[in-house]
Specification:
By secondary structure, the protein is of the alpha+beta class. The chain is built from two helices and seven strands. The chain has one domain. The chain has a seven-stranded antiparallel beta sheet.
Amino acid sequence: MKAQPNKHMTHCQYQSGTGSVDIMVSDDWDMTNPFGVDKKSDTAVPGIGDEAYINDMGLRIRKGTRGVEIGATGAAGDYEGAAADAQNDLSRKLEIKTGKAIVGRL
């Protein structure tokens, strides 16, 4: 999927049988970070853009005035306990890997 939800954002989604990656790119950081940084749920991710934060909802990256929001999921299914933890860990790793790959293009 490739969409333009408004004049400031582009939305792309990539899907396969093993999961999906959802990316929102904006020319305005505040549109990808509308609620600011939540010190309780956001964890800073050093080394990506000018600043980056990850939480259970995904990764947000600022580079200059631009922003990127990345969400990744593994294969669909119901996961509990260690399996759920492993899926969440995989999602975070994929979000960070994707962020590092695209931040230089902003």
